[in-house]
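Weekly structure sync, notes
Attendees: PL (lead), two postdocs, one rotation student
Agenda item 3: pending single-chain targets
PL asked that the sequence for the first pending target be pasted directly into the notes so everyone works from the same version. It is reproduced below exactly as submitted, 132 residues in total.
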Amino acid sequence: MVSTQVSATGAAHFPLQAAYEVAPRDLMADLERDPCSVFVVDIQDPEIFEAAHIPGARNIHLEDLCTVCAELPKDRAIVIYCGDVSCGLPLWAALELAQDGFTAKYLHGGLAAWAKEDLPVEISPPPPPPEY
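Predicted structure, written out during the meeting:
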């Protein structure tokens, strides 16, 4: 049997988590309504980002997010995502940014959920060939 205190703590977790998440269609609606109100950050490795990402997203690897914190816009909602629902890092990153005064959320389900909704993705162009 689970104690009441543990259950209450667990129950308090879900509303808190929901306050920091955004569904793919809701993010798309925000981007269509006012693209300058949202700053989308993909925290995956650059190679994964280049293969497919949300249009307009910036690739800032999780390890670098705190380093570039001063460069992030405080006047826009920051939405962070990674590959899929199994990655818990965007929630952690959104909470960290919120503690630093940012309006931050994470994309529930990541890029996989975005693509499953048939929402647009961009592919980065390959780098130019070296000049000899």
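Discussion points:
- The first strand starts at residue 21 and ends at 22.
- Strands lie at 21-22, 38-42, 58-59, 77-81, 104-107.
Action: rotation student to compare against the earlier draft before next sync.
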